[in-house]
Amino acid sequence: xxxxxxxxxxxxxxxxxxxxxxxxxxxxxxxxxxxxxxxxxxxxxxxxxxxxxxxxxxxxxxxxxxxxxxxxxxxxxxxxxxxxxxxxxxxxxxxxxxxxxxxxxxxxxxxxxxxxxxxxxxxxxxxxxxxxxxxxxxxxxxxxxxxxxxxxxxxxxxxxxxxxxxxxxxxxxxxxxxxxxxxxxxxxxxxxxxxxxxxxxxxxxxxxxxxxxxxxxxxxxxxxxxxxxxxxxxxxxxxxxxxxxxxxxxxxxxxxxxxxxxxxxxxxxxxxxxxxxxxxxxxxxxxxxxxxxxxxxxxxxxxxxxxxxxxxxxxxxxxxxxxxxxxxxxxxxxxxxxxxxxxxxxxxxxxxxxxxxxxxxxxxxxxxxxxxxxxxxxxxxxxxxxxxxxxxxxxxxxxxxxxxxxxxxxxxxxxxxxxxxxxxxxxxxxxxxxxxxxxxxxxxxxxxxxxxxxxxxxxxxxxxxxxxxxxxxxxxxxxxxxxxxxxxxxxxxxxxxxxxxxxxxxxxxxxxxxxxxxxxxxxxxxxxxxxxxxxxxxxxxxxxxxxxxxxxxxxxxxxxxxxxxxxxxxxxxxxxxxxxxxxxxxxxxxxx
Length: 592
Prior knowledge:
Elements: H1 2-8, E1 12-17, E2 22-25, H2 28-33, H3 37-42, H4 54-65, E3 70-78, E4 84-94, E5 99-106, H5 108-130, E6 134-138, E7 144-147, H6 149-155, H7 167-170, H8 176-187, E8 192-200, E9 206-218, E10 221-231, H9 233-310, H10 315-331, H11 340-356, H12 362-371, H13 376-385, H14 388-424, E11 437-439, H15 441-451, H16 453-456, E12 460-465, E13 473-475, H17 477-494, E14 499-507, E15 511-518, H18 548-558, E16 562-568, E17 571-579, E18 588-591
Parallel strand pairs: 12-14, 16-18
Antiparallel strand pairs: 1-2, 1-5, 3-4, 4-5, 6-7, 6-10, 8-9, 9-10, 11-13, 14-15, 15-17, 16-17
Helix pairs in contact: 9-14, 10-14, 11-12, 15-17, 17-18
């Protein structure tokens, strides 16, 4: 019968003799402890008890032998792998048979879960206590159920004083009604993500706090309000100082702008006309040089076409030439993105290829071919499309037509610059009336570098440190190009046409910042606050009129932007900040 009962029980049942050995065991014991039945029956049961529990377990067994009818206790057994198993025992000792009849229940999972819960509570309590935030739990009657150390540190009350305090003792009277409304919302189940009130410390000191609040419910019944606050005194003071500074700055700018407009505009207009030649010279000269070179390129293109015609130009030849010329038309308007080293390597490869095919003066064709973005594979295809005696003329026609189209683009660009400068000189504000556009700053900088390439390549190394994901800005693209042109041109002049030019960009939520840095000799500190004045220049007589930076200043001002300059020997940086959205309500200029 006892064997059948052992097999039927869902708990762990066993029979042990008063000598301390198991005599019968239900099947679950081997699964629980990992020992086979033989090991369990041949060893004293105390061998399986966790050493710390051996003494208490032996005492329970002794009590049973001494006549206690039912023994209930807990202890820990060790399984075969050394892991601990918690067991809850109900045991009966029968003196007449000299045996214990016991049932044990495995509590291991429950005990582990309880310990994990206690450890989690300890970690949470440590986190709350170590937090710099002011944390409090408030009962429905307004008294505090719990506050952390930061609460005492900020408010100055001792733990002994806490039971006599309510929420309204620490909140400025001005916010009592507001707190009452918030608590009502929390009791209805709402969570308040942002609360801003003023606390009053024990010594009467008031300080602003910001935080959130939520409710704790049990079975649908409101139990407490939990709040987390942070002292924002420093932030409020900083905001007040910032607002004061901003107001003062706006007043200073308005006064300076008004004085400049009222007292100097007419005089400046007269002097601007004297400097127009300086500002127009570069694009005009570029257009003039382009026209001369264009004549030669067109002449050479026509000559090569006639040479091909004399050699028997076929329909296929004409179609292929049309494709190559069309490709040159497209490439002529694209900026050159190759660095000097890559271009040099490619030109060398192209020269070798041309020389191997007997093309005269291969160095004259190599540059335009690389600018056309043609590699050796492309040239092999072209060589396969023309008879050997026609190849040199076809390549020359292709490169000279590309040069002609590139010169046309240069002339168009130069004449456009002239037009923009003339418009900018209409009045003292230099405001263009062109429509506002979404402008890519990097594109404008790259185009400016292309325009100044002849000046830069004489010995200026350009380092472009463009930021990632720079947004387009709402501005006048032609004006911004003038800003970049003047700043870069001045930097090159300051370096003596040889040095290191760094152009970097960055952006935040409101502004795009462009910094143009050169390693020239720098600007005298006593002159920094004058660099944006009209007609002020540090160049030698006849080398500048002082209009460049004044034009930059007015364009940046017209865009609602800011410009400043810092300078030390070997490093001068002009920083231009343009708003993402155009704002023409004011201006800020700083020289440091």
